[in-house]
Known about the structure:
Order of helices and strands: HHHHHHEEEHHEEEHEEH
Radius of gyration: 23 Å
Number of helices: 10
Strand order of the largest sheet: 3-4-5-6-8-7
Largest sheet: 6 strands, antiparallel
Strand content: 15-25%
Amino acid sequence: SGSRPHSSSRGARRGRARTCARTRRAMRRARTFFSMRLLAKLPAFDAWHAVADESLVSHADAKDLAGTLARVAAKARRNTSARFAARSTEATPDGGRRFVDAPPVLRRVGDAEAAAVARALGDWLPTLAEDRLPLLARYAVHDVAFRVVGTGSVGTRAYVVLLLDHRGEPLVLQVKEARPSVLLPHLATAGFPPPEPVTHEGRRVVLGQRRMQVVSDHLLGWTTIDERPYQVRQFRNRKGSVDPVSLEPAELDDYARMTGAL
């Protein structure tokens, strides 16, 4: 009986391998509204503004994945900076709010560091579209904390900034250090010419996101703190994701079909 789990596990791995092979073929077969073939036929202006939304599930014939996507979408709608503020801040005697220390993930910074971050937001504002400014004029900075970021950004400095509007409603920004691209040292090896010098790594990151994403964060911009480049964005901006590792074979097939369509 001891050999059965091992055999079953090995069979499961083979099954997933076959599924991955089928998903690759499915990506090639994908014929959806947002396929490259159709986008290539559209006028440049229409192709530029083509938006992939939840309706893509029906176009890509991803019925097995529909339930998972619905759960991810519902969770993303709850993933807001207001919800984070409700969990991570407390009222102050003057009627404002401040972050609650939660080491090692979250800790408030000293007054001088907080003031430097707050001043840097003044340089962030001109990097936004002008129509955002009347909205942001309703907010004021109330607190700044250092927050540990994900494994992909270990070693970078990252702050969360608590803003409150005239009614005390919160908005949380993330101010995250921008590092040079990890691909930069490999360009010459790959045969690419050296790129033009980057004047600001935060600007490079933000412009790249704006070009690649049809709908980007409305508050995405850049600034500088103590001569270090940073990118600024809304924290917890209703983002969600699907973990491919957790998918069943049929769902994985649909997932590949959708990514191929995108």
